[in-house]
Amino acid sequence: MVISDFIQMLQNAGIPDACFDFRCMLEQITGNKYSVQLSASQEQQLLTMIQRRISGEPLQYILGEWEFYGLRIFVGEGVLIPRPETELLVDTVLDWCKAHPVGHIIDLCTGSGCIALALKKHLPDVLVSAVDISETALHYARKNAEYHHLPVTFYHADVTDKDFIAQFRNLDIIVSNPPYLTVQEMAELQTEVQHEPALALYGGSAPDGTYFYQNITSGWQSSLSSGGMLAYEIGWQQSRPVTEILTSHAFHSVRVIQDYEHRDRIVSGQKN
Question: Are residues 120 and 249 in the same domain?
Fold first, then answer.
């Protein structure tokens, strides 16, 4: 088969950005996204990857990795795929650190560890901890930390567990991209996203998907230093309820930051 035949297979299956996806797969197999000389085994590898893609499996799972904030992040079934808009959360924290002394940051619902690792890379002298309830996700997080030689302390725990929370004091920053999809949004997920763990997507019993924002804000508030920052990634329709949650818990300087598509994406506030 020639390259155009492989691309046509993806296009015929309705895969958006078929050429991009193919080039990514080709580069992983050959080391060259424009290579045209394929051995029989490489051709078979490529066919297998294309069949997985046609079945609706995310490209990132097929490749087994994705880039986040300049870092190679290993991913696979059972862990949330890093997304470009989440880099804004890292930007928000790093901007804050330029003007405030920071000793300890904790990343709640860390998933692949991408946020915690990006922060540790740029803040090598800051203690960074990360928490997730999924052992599968933590497997990838630890693998990513080891690969990049970034010392992050990972905890396997429920971020709403009061006994677990009680061991933390004087945190300077709490950062989180928690599950926030509503029941309706979960029912309307694209085929690709359905491959990702519901545990990392579903926002819990609150009808507006704010269960974790409510419980993290109330549960972790006492663990945050006076003047410390709490920063969340949010669903694009959640800026008002999440802002209200922060202000109702006496956070000030609450602000909303929009993503590249001009949708509300980050909410942050400062503890009194």
Answer: yes
Structural domain including 14 reads: 3-55
**Helices of type H across the chain:** 3-12, 18-30, 40-54, 59-63, 87-97, 114-122, 135-148, 162-165, 183-187, 191-194, 211-220, 239-248
User: Does residue 70 lie within any of the structural domains?
Assistant: no
User: What are 171-189's pLDDT values in tens digits?
Assistant: 999 999 999 999 999 999 9
Pull the structure tokens for residue 22: 């193919």
Question: What is the C-alpha to C-alpha distance for residues 37 and 221, in angstroms, rounded to an integer?
Answer: 58
Cα atoms in the 13 Å half-sphere on the side-chain side of 104 = 10
Count of the separate structural domains present in the chain: 2
- Tell me the CA distances in angstroms from 23 to 56, 125, 129, 192, one per residue in order: 17, 38, 36, 19
Find residue 156's DSSP bridge partners. Answer: 132
Question: Whole-structure pTM over 0.70, yes or no?
Answer: yes
How do residues 195-250 score in pLDDT, each as one tens digit?
999 999 999 988 999 999 999 999 999 999 999 999 999 999 999 999 999 999 99
Tokens of 78: 């059972």
Do 109 and 48 lie in one domain? The reply is: no
Neighbours of 207 (CB within 10 A): 11
